[in-house]
Task: inverse folding
């Protein structure tokens, strides 16, 4: 029986130990230590996984249709399936059989702060997810690439990592390494925290790999894909923090349990199962990170969980999940937040599912200008269209906001945005596409506001004086 | 052989080749900036994007859009059998137009004062693929000009961030001085503080730069490139045999650029070779013959100096004394042959020796640590003479014995039975070797003929001085350190009254035979047409007295007469015939 609707107050999965409305108060959140975590059946899923064959763990994840929570929504199990088999007769981590896990904790998308909650309060959930992934995919080293601005979160993670090592989760005597008696599929797994230097583009998976290698964070050309040739030229899996945090519950409760949450696609696409952290920001009464089942309408989130619009203003628009996904118009308040949103509501996709809500007083031209400023600042400068186009767009947007533009500049802005890349784009990574979607949807959905700011372009019409005189 | 269709042209390729490489090999034009044959692929300029269709084996090999129909970078996509690629489809052309527009919005468009104008890919592609007007009304980003190192200026406002130069310093020179600084449209190429772009092959980044961002300090504002004519030549100052272009105008060399030869120098040359032509136009060049009169050297015309030289040499030969000839390793094989033949005709037991071979530093392979046979390796040679092996080969063939090396030759030339000495030098610097000066010593009573290019102590001690020509002023064949024989042509006429050494040998022979020269042909004025837009140059060229020396004929004669020199008929490599250049504008007769 396909599931068509979301559960209004689902059991919290990711926020099970983190007090979140309606089951707890934001104020009660605190760091979950190793002891607290294990007291609440922590690391049980890892122990259960180790009892299974690695292939069975992967199969369970594939069956759950867990889609990546980083933004693209690519099925996690399928991604894992791209890994080439380990060379015959070698254990993971031996020379010639190095394979890596890169954990994408470079959460730099404006308005997105969901991974931060997990790293802030429940770091062991992430570490357990990492350990399960490493065991299932036969990865010997995991690098948590955390954005540079997350000082506190990096410290929390490092403390948790030390606890995990001390308690035999990672390392030589770790759970996955086993002891002399266990044998079989066991191998040593290590985990490291690597802090980024504060560039948005290092959250792009191949840019992240370059940064991990100590290079300039310029996204790589694909193919070869990271699963074949990634970090240091070795097979590498790159997963988002939230994706990995879903693994323990999927392994302890089974794929069927996971598929019982969230919704099937209403337009025949792949389903959106499971719960999702949604960090609501903007003009709402009670912003914060909540956990909902996928498929929940934006209006329900704002009206029922976030205390409504701030000051009882009217809803004007919202960015569904990070500004590179585009914007939802005033008439799209009821948009369901699931992976179908891109095709149904003319945005790029669900993204990180962290809505930024705007009320009726918002100046959309200023929003557009601010967005283009962000992309201009964060364009890595590798590909010509993005490097030059993002700067041009920002200047155009600034001129439009200041009132010095004409209608033709609006059309030019749209053309520049489109030629920069419109999925499939013309650049190496998707940053230009994000810029294009943001600017294009905001101009198209709020065009009257832009037109009110620009002067008309008069096209001179050639008048034949002789004819006039005759008539 | 697998076949791919690019813009309607069926092209055969070897598996593993990229689409752009196949197109280049078959003369199908696809625009590109960041791609370079000698560097890794960056695919960041995005102008080479094309639409591709590939046969789908799961669908009865029907053509299906490749990569979901998105534009693929042809420089980075491997060619597949049966693939169809279009870079002239509306979608691809729209992208080319967009990229051209993007590249130019922050470009200063200062072509009138830019050295690159005329050989600039931005200009060419703007003409072919761009749009006529700019729609950019905002403020341009103005990046600074930088002094990167001893030979290179960076005009970073003109830079299009193709990163060829950065990749070069990382992959070829292995020195990694250059890097990309900043982000987005404000990023620049830069050097690290206190680390200049200063390595032996650094100036290659100037040739790599597709626009006018990296410029040669030496060539800066020296000449507009459309006035330059180029002649295929060979490295004439080290033993590398590097292939190069000598670019010149009105009888003056302006610069030297590498000529691609994947077996020898790949795409590069050393800075030493690049700037090693300075002595050609040095103030110290010998411009006129001299002879000794009342103990002092005086400039005189060729005929009298040749007569004087012939007289002195004949006197020594008649007295039964030995003639000693020192052939410089700077001379091409043909001239070594002509000079040695002349000496042997005077004195069948002439003492023939190879001039001193200068060495400087050590051989060096780039990138550091690479093996010499590596496909990407580039070697710098410590041996600073282009043809030591060729001269040895020629002398050995003529005498039937190993030629004397310099030390043994000096000993023989200073022996009592040596009556006359002919010394050729032609080095980049005036030859100050003490042993050589001792041979030429005025007190010894030997008759000394010096054939050299630069003024110096050696010239001062000669009885007759005959001005020779540097390698850009004559043709010939050099044998490089790896034993490859490569022929080259004269790029410019010899300066003033200088003559190629081969011609001097021919003239000396004529003077010995007593060939008279009519007064009118002592020197003549030849008008050299330098092409459209240039003032025709009146060049004074010293008239030959003997038969005109021709390197090509000499090569044939060498092969015909001496079995040991047969390789000069068969194994000499000639520069590839230049591809006819297609005019992008039709000439209209006025």
Result:
């Amino acid at each position: 029986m396909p599931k068509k609707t979301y559960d209004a107050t689902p059991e919290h999965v990711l926020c099970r130990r983190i007090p979140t409305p309606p089951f707890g108060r934001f104020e009660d959140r605190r760091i979950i230590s190793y002891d607290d975590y294990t007291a609440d059946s922590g690391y049980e899923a890892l122990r259960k996984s180790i009892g299974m064959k690695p292939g069975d763990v992967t199969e369970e994840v594939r069956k759950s249709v867990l889609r990546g929570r980083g933004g693209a929504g690519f099925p996690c199990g399928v991604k894992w399936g791209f890994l080439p088999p380990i060379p015959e007769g070698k254990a993971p981590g031996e020379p010639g059989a190095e394979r890596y896990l890169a954990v994408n904790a470079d959460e730099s998308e404006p308005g997105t702060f969901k991974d931060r909650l997990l790293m802030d309060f429940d770091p062991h959930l992430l570490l357990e997810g990492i350990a399960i992934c490493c065991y299932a995919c036969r990865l010997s080293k995991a690098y948590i690439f955390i954005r540079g601005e997350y000082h506190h979160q990096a410290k929390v993670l490092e403390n948790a990592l030390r606890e995990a090592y001390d308690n035999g989760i990672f390392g030589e005597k770790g759970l996955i390494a086993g002891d002399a008696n266990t044998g079989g599929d066991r191998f040593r797994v290590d985990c490291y925290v690597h802090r980024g230097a504060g560039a948005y583009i290092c959250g792009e998976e191949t840019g992240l790999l370059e940064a991990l290698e100590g290079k300039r964070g310029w996204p790589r050309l694909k193919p070869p894909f990271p699963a074949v040739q990634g970090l240091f030229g070795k097979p590498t899996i790159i997963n988002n923090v939230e994706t990995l945090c879903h693994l323990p519950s999927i392994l302890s409760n089974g794929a069927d349990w996971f598929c019982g949450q969230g919704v099937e696609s209403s337009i025949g696409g792949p389903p959106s199962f499971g719960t999702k952290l949604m960090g609501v920001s903007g003009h709402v009464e009670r912003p914060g990170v909540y956990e909902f089942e996928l498929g929940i309408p934006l209006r329900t989130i704002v009206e029922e969980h976030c205390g409504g619009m701030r000051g009882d203003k009217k809803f004007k628009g919202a960015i569904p999940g990070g500004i590179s996904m585009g914007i939802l118009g005033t008439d799209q308040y009821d948009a369901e937040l699931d992976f179908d949103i891109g095709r149904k509501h003319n945005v790029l996709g669900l993204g990180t599912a962290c809505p930024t809500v705007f009320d009726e007083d918002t100046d959309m031209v200023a929003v557009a200008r601010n967005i283009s400023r962000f992309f201009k600042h964060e364009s890595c400068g590798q590909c010509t269209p993005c490097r030059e186009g993002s700067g041009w767009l920002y200047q155009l947007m600034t001129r439009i906001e200041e009132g010095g533009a004409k209608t033709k500049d609006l059309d030019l802005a749209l053309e520049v945005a489109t030629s920069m890349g419109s999925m499939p784009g013309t650049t190496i990574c998707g940053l230009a596409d994000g810029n294009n979607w943001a600017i294009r949807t905001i101009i198209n959905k709020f065009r009257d506001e832009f037109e009110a700011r620009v002067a008309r372009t008069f096209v001179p019409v050639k008048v034949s004086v002789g004819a006039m005189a005759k008539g | 052989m697998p076949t791919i269709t690019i813009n309607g042209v069926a092209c055969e390729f070897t598996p593993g080749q990229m689409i752009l490489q196949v197109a280049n090999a078959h003369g199908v034009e696809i625009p590109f900036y960041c791609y370079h044959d000698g560097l890794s692929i960056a695919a960041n300029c995005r102008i080479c994007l094309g639409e591709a269709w590939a046969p789908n084996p799961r669908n009865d090999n029907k053509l299906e859009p490749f990569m979901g129909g998105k534009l693929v970078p042809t420089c980075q996509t491997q060619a597949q059998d049966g693939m169809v690629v279009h870079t002239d489809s509306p979608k691809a052309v729209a992208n080319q137009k967009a990229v051209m527009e993007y590249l130019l919005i922050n470009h200063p468009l200062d072509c009138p004062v830019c050295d690159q104008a005329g050989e600039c890919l931005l200009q060419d592609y703007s003409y072919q693929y761009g749009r006529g007007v700019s729609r950019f009304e905002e403020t341009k980003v103005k990046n600074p000009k930088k002094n990167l190192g001893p030979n290179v200026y960076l005009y970073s406002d003109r830079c299009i961030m193709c990163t060829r130069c950065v990749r070069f310093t990382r992959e070829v020179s292995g020195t990694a001085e250059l890097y990309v600084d900043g982000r987005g449209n404000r990023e620049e190429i830069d050097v690290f503080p206190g680390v200049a772009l200063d390595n032996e092959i650094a100036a290659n980044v100037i040739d790599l730069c597709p626009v006018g961002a990296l410029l040669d300090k030496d060539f800066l504002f020296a000449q507009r490139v459309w006035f330059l004519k180029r002649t295929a030549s060979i490295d004439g100052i080290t033993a590398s045999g590097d292939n190069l272009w000598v670019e010149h105008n009105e009888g003056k060399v302006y610069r030297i650029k590498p000529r691609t030869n994947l077996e020898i120098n790949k795409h590069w040359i050393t800075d030493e070779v690049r700037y090693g032509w300075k002595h050609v136009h040095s103030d110290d060049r010998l411009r006129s013959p001299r002879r000794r009169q009342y103990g002092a050297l005086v400039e005189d015309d060729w005929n009298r100096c040749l007569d004087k030289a012939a007289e002195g040499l004949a006197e020594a030969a008649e007295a039964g004394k030995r003639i000693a000839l020192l052939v410089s390793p700077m001379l091409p094989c043909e001239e070594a042959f002509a000079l040695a033949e002349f000496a042997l005709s005077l004195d069948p037991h002439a003492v023939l020796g190879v001039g001193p071979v200068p060495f400087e530093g050590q051989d060096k392979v780039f990138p550091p640590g690479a093996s010499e046979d590596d496909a990407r390796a580039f070697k710098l040679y410590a041996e600073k003479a282009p043809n030591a092996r060729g001269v040895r080969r020629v002398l050995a063939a003529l005498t039937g014995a190993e030629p004397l090396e310099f030390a043994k030759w000096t000993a023989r030339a200073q022996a009592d039975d040596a009556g006359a000495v002919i010394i050729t030098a032609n080095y980049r610097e005036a030859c100050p070797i003490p042993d050589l000066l001792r041979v030429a010593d005025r007190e010894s009573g030997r008759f000394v003929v010096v054939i050299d290019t630069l003024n110096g102590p050696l010239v001062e001690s000669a009885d007759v001085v005959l001005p020779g020509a540097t390698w850009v002023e004559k043709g010939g064949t050099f044998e490089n350190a790896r034993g490859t024989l490569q022929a080259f042509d004269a790029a410019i006429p010899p300066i003033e009254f200088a003559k190629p050494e081969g011609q001097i040998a021919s003239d000396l022979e004529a003077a010995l035979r007593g060939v008279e020269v009519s007064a009118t042909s002592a020197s003549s004025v030849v008008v050299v047409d330098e092409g459209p837009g240039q003032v025709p140059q009146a060049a004074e060229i010293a008239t030959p007295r003997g038969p005109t020396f021709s390197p090509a004929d000499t090569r044939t004669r060498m092969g015909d007469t001496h079995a040991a020199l047969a390789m000069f008929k068969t194994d000499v490599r000639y520069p590839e015939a230049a591809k006819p250049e297609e005019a992008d504008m039709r000439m209209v007769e006025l």
User: Anything to note?
Assistant: Chain B is about 25% helix and 20% strand. The interface with chain A takes residues 41-47, 49, 67-71, 73, 76, 94-95, 98-99, 102-103, 105-106, 135-139, 141, 160-161, 179-180, 182-187 of chain B (CB under 8 Å).
